[in-house]
Amino acid sequence: MSRRPRNTALRILIGTTLVLAVVVGALVLYTNQQLRNIPRFPLDLDRPGRPAAAAGDALNILIAGVDDPDGSGRGPTVEKALAGKVWPQGAFRSDAIIVLHLPADRRTAQLVSIPRDSYVDVAGHRRTKINAAFSYGGPQLLARTVEDLGGIRIDHVVVVDFRGLARITDIVGGVDVYVDGSRRHLDGREALAYVRERHALLRGDLDRVQRQQNFLRALLAGLVRTGTVANPVRLLRLTHQLASTIAVDDGLDAGTIRGLALDSRGLRPGDLTFATVPVTGTPTIAGASVVTLDLPRTASMLRSLGEGALVDWLEGNHTDTLPGQRQVR
After folding, report:
1. 130 domain residue, yes or no
2. pTM
3. Is residue 191 part of a domain?
């Protein structure tokens, strides 16, 4: 019997494998190049008494969502501000502040939100709203303020322009949420309105925080549903696409970002824990509406987050946690 058909099939198999290897390799190289092009900013938080680092390979990442300063969509971008030599004080404020803890095994993630109007001490500026820390000193002052607030070490900072949030939503094909009991599929523009709304919500900024958390949960659910997170090639392509929507500190190089994406691809919505720091009230102080925190319990909560023990902390303490999709206002 001739071996030619078998040899032909073998050559086809080898050729196809080589082509796939070249394509995947080219994609990885291209993605690495794009990841290196992400805007980066310096981050130096070293100082006496700084909180200790998380154990092992666990990471604490501060995520700051920054709104359009004039609401027009045509003004200066935060990426350009971060690239400048002098920070433009007063131009930007962080409307979403989330501390993300990734344990060493990357099998779960815990996210704690700090309301933007939280009334806290900001180094060099006394007590004021926490989102003013970003306005006064950019990512570095915001990260230091969070570290001082809770005794948690921030390893990295990611800044997302809210205009970038709309692009993220469109890149993944939209997200599904419930509004007034009805399921809604939101595109980027609609998602931006969803996470920005607060005046029509019963608890104002506190309900807006839950909408921001719910958006992140819905985003991951969509990525799981489409099979993106389970497919390394799709995931790398998505990572490249998302690179145009963020700025990161200079310690987050291309290899680290790629590794985090691949190591976390097993995460599912049920693996995420969302909570908000303990709030005591929403008074008006010096003519401004603020959110007052239970500072000792906030510090305890953030320390537990940094140690990977947030779930245990929540079992013994009451604070806002993210409810089911239909219960989010």
Report:
1. yes
2. 0.88
3. yes
